[in-house]
Amino acid sequence: MTLRGIVANNLRRLRAEKKVTQEELADRAGLNRKYPSLLENEHYAASVDVLEKLAIALDIDPVELFRKNS
C-alpha cells in the first residue's frame, strides 16, 4: 500500500472512531468541506500543513496518520 493509501485509511478510521463527519472535520481544520473526502478516497495527497491541521482537529498525534495497520 502506498503512503497516500495508508494516510487515507487512517484518516477515515480515526475520523469514524471520533464520530466526526467529513464536513465537521473540514470545518474544524479550516478546510474546504469536500477536502477530507478527496483525501480519504486518495484523489489528493495532503501537505504536511494540512496533515497537522487534521491531526489537531481530530485531537491525535500526527504520527497516527502514518501508522501501518495490519
Automatic annotation (TrEMBL):
CDD domains: HTH_XRE (cd00093). It holds the Pfam family HTH_3. The keyword DNA-binding applies. Keywords: DNA-binding. Residues 11-65 form the HTH cro/C1-type domain. The keyword Kinase does not apply. PANTHER family: HTH-TYPE TRANSCRIPTIONAL REGULATOR, METHYLPHOSPHONATE SYNTHASE. This is Helix-turn-helix transcriptional regulator.
